Amino acid sequence: MDLNLYKDIFEPFEKLVEIEILGKTYEVPENNSLLRCFQFLSLNSISQGDFCWNRDCMNCQVWIENDGREKAVIACRAKVEAGMRIIRLHEEIEFAPDVESGPGSTEKGMKHSPGS
After folding, report:
1. Within 1-116, where are the H helices?
2. How far apart are CA 51 and CA 48, in angstroms?
3. Whole-model pTM?
4. What string of pLDDT tens digits covers the 116 residues of the chain?
5. Which domains does the chain have, with CATH numbers?
């Protein structure tokens, strides 16, 4: 995968980091917001979603596990961190990693299939 193809959309990054989303592990670009990371994995559904990208709408709220507790964060403003565990997504986030195209088309170690 040529990561340079994505330099116009994402903040500068040199590597991918592992995060967990709803129990599945994915690799996403470091130094980016969680919403951009979701877009990296699911370009079509996130790009066409109803998001303001500036914290006004709250449609990108997610819940991460933090020291055994849930913590709500706004995905358009929260920076990704290696090892992050996202345990809930706002209903507006239609997270379906692209199967056929895009850099996020595979989960770490397995192919994602719709409905799994």
Report:
1. 34-41, 43-47
2. 8
3. 0.79
4. 566 666 788 899 889 999 999 999 999 999 999 999 999 999 888 988 999 988 889 999 999 998 899 999 999 999 999 999 999 999 999 877 764 444 544 444 333 333 33
5. 3-101 (3.10.20.30)
